[in-house]
Design brief:
Layout lengths: L14 E6 L4 H19 L5 H10 L10 E8 L2 E12 L2 E9 L8 H15 L4 E6 L4 H9 L3 E2 L11 E6 L5
Length: about 170
């Protein structure tokens, strides 16, 4: 399903965003890249295939489809350069998750546009609050979320990786 273009472009490229099934080959491949990055950042070295596969088993993405959530990919032509999704945790509340932007497009506003698209899709699905957790070592992500209006909230997760817990009240879609 093609989403409305977000007008995100640089001198040579326009990015587009699409909803995909996390179990599809495209969905699985980009989620694998997400885990490869966050596992590697956690350990301070490149993640092994075994570590990535274990992380994908420990934190499945099956709930990012249907009534329980969605996964958006960012494409630069045919190349997938990012992803992100929202998982409904209770009526009106969802968690922002699996946000990833490839190094090759960082600094171009890709992450900001992706999160805004996820916010808009969430609001259209009846979500009024989008929350997230972010590890301390993911400083760029933490900075992005704060720039987009996410504020610290009382803890809602007991995950050992939930160093920062943030939320944002979404404006109703019109």
């Amino acid at each position: 399903m093609q989403l409305e273009p977000v007008g995100l472009s640089n001198a040579t490229t326009t990015f587009d965003m699409m909803l995909v099934d996390p179990a599809s080959s495209v969905g699985r491949a980009v989620i694998r890249r997400f885990f490869k990055e966050i596992v590697g950042r956690y350990w301070g070295r490149e993640a092994t295939d075994v570590e990535v596969e274990q992380a994908m088993l420990d934190e499945p993405s099956d709930d990012l489809r249907g009534d329980t959530g969605f996964l958006v990919i960012v494409r630069d032509g045919e190349r997938v350069v990012g992803c992100g999704g929202a998982k409904v945790v209770e009526p009106g509340i969802a968690e922002l998750t699996r946000v990833f932007v490839d190094d090759s497009v960082r600094g171009l506003g890709t992450g900001k546009a992706l999160v805004r698209e996820i916010e808009a899709l969430s609001a259209r699905r009846g979500v009024h609050t989008l929350r997230l957790t972010v590890r301390e070592d993911l400083a760029e992500a933490h900075r992005l979320y704060r720039q987009l209006g996410y504020k610290p909230v009382p803890p809602f997760s007991t995950s050992p990786y939930a160093d920062n817990q943030l939320a944002k009240v979404l404006l109703e879609s019109r």
